[in-house]
Design a protein that fits this description.
The complex is a heterodimer of chains A (about 400) and B (about 120).
Chain A lengths: L1 H17 L2 H14 L4 H25 L3 H9 L1 H34 L3 H18 L2 H12 L4 H9 L3 H9 L9 H15 L2 H13 L7 H30 L9 H4 L1 H42 L13 H19 L4 H27 L2 H4 L6 H28 L4
Helix pairs in contact in A: 1-7, 1-12, 2-10, 2-12, 2-16, 3-10, 3-11, 3-12, 3-16, 4-5, 4-14, 5-6, 5-14, 5-15, 5-16, 6-14, 6-15, 7-14, 8-12, 8-14, 10-16, 10-18, 11-14, 12-14, 14-15, 16-18
Chain B lengths: L3 H28 L5 H23 L6 H28 L8 H19 L4
Helix pairs in contact in B: 1-2, 1-3, 1-4, 2-3, 3-4
Classes of the chains: A mainly alpha (about 400), B mainly alpha (about 120).
Chain lengths: ~400, ~120
């Protein structure tokens, strides 16, 4: 019974933890502009992140070593440094977006300006990382994030024309008045939002934090295979709500206050309250994960002591990196930059850096020296290899599309 | 997709129209007690910021012809009306004495959306 509960809890946490500010904003923007005609990208992204997380979690559980430590050893310091630089930069950008997201959600809930909430959010992130146990932290934010299911409930309450929505999914087209280049820009952004590298660093480092062994591989695979696709459905319901309510009224989403309009329309203030709790939990959870990931990447690369399983004084540099990252993120937000813009940039740059993080994991997951009998199986390997050209094309196209479309404007 | 100054003016009108539609939805939900005052207030602030940003970019466009200049002046007038209406919505949320009621605001917003859409479609 305890084992079944553990499996259930793991899946729920994976669903609740899947959505972050990038998924929220990008899905709502896409839904309001293109309806459900980009759902296929979410499907591609979710399968990709499942493969990525499965390989990274397996590498960590089998070798008992952290991702960056192995990447550095396997690829050599020079290649690994490029990987580190890209990953750290993207992670910092994502961290900034998540802290901004927490502040925006609290602003919506309280009416108190986001600049007042930013330092509070950053301090709370630091405090939780300093004081709260890894498992408690991960489970609580994941479960609270589940309240975002209100978007799926809202979709049913809105009573949409399901046939029309299905048509948008099955026969995607670029709506009249929208440019094809903007459509592809958002396709790349959505792909980047679904396959954000920090999720994988956090997942694989979490495997070490929670002392996974080969025995835990089945459970981890189940969490990924069920939790992430269900989390993906949550993303699609956000896009669908925007497609049903905002798109027909000509509202192009540009703020979090617009993202929650369909929820309020469908379920009133109670539904809105659930959505706000979910957004705070999802962004706060993601802020914790990105802050930890900043410490993980740097400490693992340089061979410093790391992990929440160690008292902070035994992993001082790991904690200093996290504190400095939070301060840098806060400093960026203090310039007055729009957190929604930072979010949009972070998902695009996630796509840019994806080959640098995905390909090394694929190489290590196929290396019998590290993995023994747990190297990629034929099916996983065929799928994972088939994703390499997809990831490379998205990476190469991201910046030209960003410039051509003026960030999808 | 139209390029140059005419394209920029059209897109500016479309963006402002989207902000107006957004505020209109918020006012409707608020008057039906389906959303909170905080939400509407933030929605209006966000939309106001969008329209002010659009106004600023329209005002600084490099205009080369008299026709473009006339169209810009026309759009700036409509954007100024939008800003005034949004300020009225702010007063309504804050229950400022003498603030317009929700029906009046929605009427104004509908008129604004019509004029902005007409501008975007190139109609007078």
């Amino acid at each position: 019974m305890t084992k079944v509960f553990g499996v259930f809890l793991g899946i729920l946490t994976a669903i609740g933890g899947f959505v972050d500010i990038g998924d929220l904003v990008t899905n709502a923007v896409v839904g309001s502009k293109f309806g459900l005609s980009l759902v296929w990208v979410v499907v591609v992204g979710v399968i990709g992140i499942c493969l990525f997380a499965d390989m990274a979690g397996r590498v960590a559980a089998v070798s008992g070593r952290a991702t960056f430590e192995i990447i550095r050893e396997r690829l050599g310091p020079r290649a690994a440094l490029a990987n580190l630089a890209a990953s750290f930069f993207i992670n910092l950008l994502t961290l900034t977006a998540q802290v901004g997201g927490v502040a925006l959600a609290l602003h919506l809930a309280s009416g108190v300006g986001p600049f007042m909430w930013m330092p509070v959010a950053a301090f709370a992130v630091w405090l939780v990382i300093w004081r709260v146990k890894f498992t408690v932290m991960e489970t609580l934010t994941g479960l609270a994030g589940l309240t975002l299911i209100v978007f799926a409930v809202a979709l049913f309450l809105l009573g949409p024309d399901w046939g029309e929505l299905a048509d948008q999914v099955v026969a995607p087209t670029v709506p009249e008045g929208e440019q094809t280049s903007v459509y592809w820009f958002y396709a790349v952004a959505l792909f980047g939002a679904a396959m954000t590298p920090y999720e994988v660093f956090f997942f694989s480092s979490g495997a070490i934090e929670e002392r996974w062994t080969k025995k835990d591989l089945g459970l981890s695979r189940l969490n990924v295979a069920l939790g992430f696709p269900l989390g993906g459905l949550l993303s699609v319901s956000i896009a669908a709500c925007a497609a049903v309510v905002l798109m027909p009224r000509g509202i192009d989403v540009g703020s979090l206050s617009e993202v929650v309009l369909p929820v309020a329309e469908a379920g009133g203030r109670i539904a809105l309250a659930f959505a706000l709790v979910g957004i705070v939990a999802a962004t706060f959870g993601a802020a914790l994960e990105t802050t930890l990931s900043s410490g993980y990447t740097l400490a693992q690369f340089f061979g410093w002591a790391w992990g929440k399983f160690r008292p902070p004084r035994q992993a001082a540099r790991f904690h200093v990196v996290m504190m400095v990252s939070l301060i840098v993120g806060l400093a960026v937000l203090a310039t007055g930059v729009d957190p929604v813009l930072v979010t949009e940039l972070s998902v695009v740059f996630s796509a840019v850096a994806l080959p640098l993080t995905y390909i090394p994991i694929l190489i290590v997951a196929n290396d019998p020296e590290y993995m023994g009998e747990h190297v990629n199986g034929r099916v996983i390997n065929t799928l994972a290899t088939a994703y390499v050209p997809v990831i490379v094309v998205a990476s190469v196209a991201a910046i030209p599309l960003l410039i051509m479309t003026g960030a999808g404007a | 997709m139209i390029g140059g100054v005419p394209g920029d003016l059209t897109r500016a009108a479309e963006t402002a129209s989207s902000a107006v539609a957004s505020v209109d939805s918020g006012v409707e939900l608020h008057s039906d007690r389906r959303t909170t005052g905080h939400h509407l207030e933030v929605l209006v602030d966000d939309s106001l910021e969008t329209v002010l940003g659009v106004r600023s970019s329209v005002a600084t466009l490099d205009i080369v012809s008299g026709d473009e200049s006339r169209r810009r002046a026309d759009l700036l007038d409509r954007l100024d009306d939008t800003v005034s209406t949004f300020i009225g919505v702010h007063e309504y949320v804050k229950s400022v004495p003498g603030a317009p009621d929700s029906a009046e605001i929605r009427n104004d917003l509908a008129g604004l959306a019509e004029t902005l859409d007409a501008f975007a479609e190139g109609k007078p």
